[in-house]
Amino acid sequence: MKKPESPHRSPRPSLSPRSLPRRLVEPDGTLPEPARRRARMLSSMLLTLALLTLASLVVTLFVNPAGAPRRTEYLTLMAGLFMTLLLAYLLNRRRHYLTAAWLTVLCALVSPWLALVLDPTVLRGDFAPLTYTVVAILLSGILLSVYATVIVSLFQILTLWVVAGLTHTSTFINWPSLLIMVLFVSVLSLVANLVNRQDLAQIEDQARLLGENENLLREQSVRDHLTNLFNRRYLEETLARELRRAERNGSQLGVIMLDIDHFKQLNDSLGHAAGDALMRELGALLRSRIREADIACRYGGDEFTLVLPDTTRAILLARAASLQEDVRKLHVKYEETVFDPISLSIGIAIYPEHGKKFEALLDAADKAMYRSKHEGLGRAVLADEIT
């Protein structure tokens, strides 16, 4: 019969792909890889746009003579655009990707219309600045969602349509051709955005599944398949880490090593399948009787090891006595056979009294366990009782 679990002694959950949460941030506080990729792409684009803006500023200085109104207007526009792009870069570096992306698109959205306001010659034939309306659409298709790209595209097309209708400049500007070009770019940007989003979603799902599978494989590599306890490899790795933590904190750490009494006779009389059934039940019992911070492992054969951080001699002795009582009440049935009550031979070692390295601590617990077995079975022996 199993005791009900106490709130502070919950078993360690086993890892499965369904139990793994999809993290928004990594454990070290960094962004997950998909978000990092988007941030890196935006940073690269912002630096490129800033350099292009500086190049345009230099061209403006050379093309327009000093003192010309057009030169001052375009220099002001380019300088404002450059400063806004730098602001977007800083926002992106501070993990405000969406704000930085929208600010980038808004720069490209507003710039052609500011050029139209500042330079009336645009509507007298020099309509080259109006062709830059497609830049906002292209950037939106790369950086923002499909819905945002639709909004930006409709804004540019409708604004061009309104300007064409209000200015009556069809003699100087081929508005139908310009509108069709913007429409083509809009449709292509939307298609590219949809395909890109689908591909990115598929890549992210595959990366997530790969990470889950890696975690699952690692979990399986450190689990004993029969008892679902951790295996010896995990014990040695984790015990060394826990000992370093205990040394830093100045705390004690206990190791309980236990062995099933008369297990060989049970195997010989009932068969290995019956022995496996007993070990499965004992593994389940150990999982249900440990704290979340404790570690339960199958050390090898019918030997098991518990690691109990932040413990004391009195607690270890009480836990060993409780385990003995629990296993005596354990009713294991295999096929039609109900096993007789079993007992455990238990050895206990404590850090730092019985060893400061994991090898010495395990060896001390192992010797104490064999002392228990040789002196009458069903006993718990402390390592310092060995003479």
Describe this structure in words.
The chain is α+β, with helices and mostly antiparallel strands and 387 residues long. It has 2 domains: 181 residues, no CATH class; 154 residues, 2-Layer Sandwich (Alpha-Beta Plaits), CATH 3.30.70.270. The protein is built from 12 helices and 7 strands. The strands form 2 sheets. Strands 2-3-1-6-7 form a 5-stranded mixed β-sheet, with helices on both faces. It has a two-stranded antiparallel sheet with strand order 4-5. A hairpin with a 2-residue loop joins strand 2 and strand 3. The longest helix is centred in the middle third of the chain and has 47 residues. The N terminus is likely disordered.
